[in-house]
Amino acid sequence: MAGEQRNVAPGTDVLIRKVDSHLATLRGGLHGPELELAERLARCLRELVIATAQASAADRGQVRVAVHYFVLRRESRGRLLSVRSLTAAERVVDKVLRQLGRRDLLAELHRDRPVLDDALPIGDALLR
Fold this sequence. Notes:
Helix content is 59%, strand content 0%. By secondary structure, it is mostly helical. Helix 1 runs parallel beside helix 3 (57-71), helix 2 runs antiparallel to helix 3 and helix 2 runs parallel beside helix 4. The N and C termini lie far apart (46 Å).
């Protein structure tokens, strides 16, 4: 099997593996719109990780925050996966995309969700 040759930074593959691993876990417990949201977020994060591989440390740090927020599901209880945490991850990912000028990757499924204030630093936005 021939693999695709990519020139990416070492940390890039680690982040993509985290996203892919988490998505595989979600596929076992989510269905319908929730699974679609998780898959869109994962696609968006993968592309963002690759696109920022050669970017500034600050930009790569924002992408790492978004990946970790997607992967770490604080509201989960055992085998039950919380939809609310996916919605929170969506808001964080969308905020990072806007801050990095990648509106083309916005993963919003529902436009009526609250929008984070772009003026707030990403760390403050996570605490809201």
